[in-house]
Amino acid sequence: MATAQISLPLPVLPEGWSAPNDFKAIGTLTTPNQRNLEPVGPHFLAHARRKRHKRTFSEDERIQAQENVKKVEDEDADEISEPEDPLMLGRDAKDWKGQDHYAVLGLSKHRYRATDSQIKRAHRKKVLRHHPDKRAATGSSEDDSFFKCIQKAFEVLTDPVKRRQFDSVDENANVDPPSKKAASKSASAFYKLWGPVFESEARFSKKQPVPKLGNDKSSKEEVEEFYNFWFAFESWRSFEYQDEDVPDDNENRDQKRHVERKNNNARKKRKTEDTARLRQLVDDCLAGDERIKKFKKEARAGKDKKRLDREAEEKRVAEEAKKAKEEKEKLLKEKEEAEKAEKAEGKKAKEAAKNAAKKNKRVLKGSVKDANYLLPEGQEASAKRIDEVLGDVEAVMAKIDNEELAVLAGKLTGLKLAEDVGAVWNEEAKRLEGEGKLKTEEMKILGS
């Protein structure tokens, strides 16, 4: 291995320096050792690369730049790699408001979902490819117009306010609603086509998280929550990005105020149109949602069931009331008939008792007549005797009831002799006198 000797001069001593006064030795020098030095590091490797490939400094830098670009592209090929549109490469940098900033940086598929890290990596990749110095090193005649577009896109997307303004009007991030025919092809087609539409619109919501469209298994509460949210949707979407540029000329203040008023009116108009567009979108989705039809059908079935149950209950109550009324009328009629029959029976019994009393009275009167008015046989009863005996009989009969009358008639039935008949009558008269029902002075013949 080659060796090299390096001669290094000792530094000049400071002026006025004196060894005895200013220097104090605190140790001794070690014995010198001989070491081998090997050339290493990026600069040596660059020198070795140039020597090996026989390149000049400019050639080596150009080739290395190309390799770095390819390396960055390979690293980001999975996330932020997409082909560049030739028309986009020829854009005028002055028309920066009309450019798609995400497409310029190669983030078309990410758009508002792109992270800050992805934006920075995409910018680095584009700068390595389109930087004017790199393009000149590769011999390209392309101007720096597209590079300015890259820088402007990076400026907008890394500023939270400007990026929000651009996202507000980024039509390329919208998902077009499906046609009625396409959404109704199958049960899954509706949710598959409408779901991304609302996911795209959800980026403008002030309230997060936003309810999902769901599927055919979603409950009624989930579906109602989804549509209630979107019918009362609060959007942060603004349209400042599309404002007409306000002149910076301080002398023309009237023109500046005119442009500001014009921009404010244009924003309000766009906001109104966007609200109407979103409402129509929700209405179209609602009209084709089979779940709503199913819930309405179930609700109608529930109402019909309640109505039928109510009608059945009303019918049952009416029938029970009718039955109760009929039963009441029947009982009332039976009661009336029973009372009528009882009354008839009572009347009949009363008539029978009356007839029996009459018969018994005839028996009683007949008993004294048959017994010769209680005179011995062969002796003729005078009219006075007859009146006195019959008077006593009437007096006794007036003091007893029908049962006692029947008992007395039973005792007298079959008796013919005056003594026997008189004994029965006397006994009855004494009984009445004893009970206080009859007075002795009221009797003429009986009881004496």
What does this molecule look like?
It is a single chain. By secondary structure, the chain is mainly α. 62% of the residues lie in helices and 0% in strands. The chain contains 17 helices and no strands. The termini are far apart. The mean pLDDT is 83.
SSE blueprint and pairings:
Layout: H1 19-22, H2 42-53, H3 57-75, H4 86-89, H5 101-104, H6 116-130, H7 132-137, H8 145-157, H9 160-168, H10 180-183, H11 187-201, H12 220-231, H13 253-288, H14 290-370, H15 383-399, H16 402-412, H17 418-435
Mean pLDDT: 83
What is the percent of helical residues?
Answer: 55-70%
Number of helices in the DSSP assignment: 17
User: What fraction of residues sit in β-strands?
Assistant: under 5%
Largest sheet, described in full? none
CA-based gyration radius = 67 Å
> Which outline best applies?
rod-shaped
| Low-confidence sequence ranges | none
Span between termini = 190 Å
Got a strand count?
Answer: 0
Topology as H/E string?
HHHHHHHHHHHHHHHHH
Structural class: mainly alpha
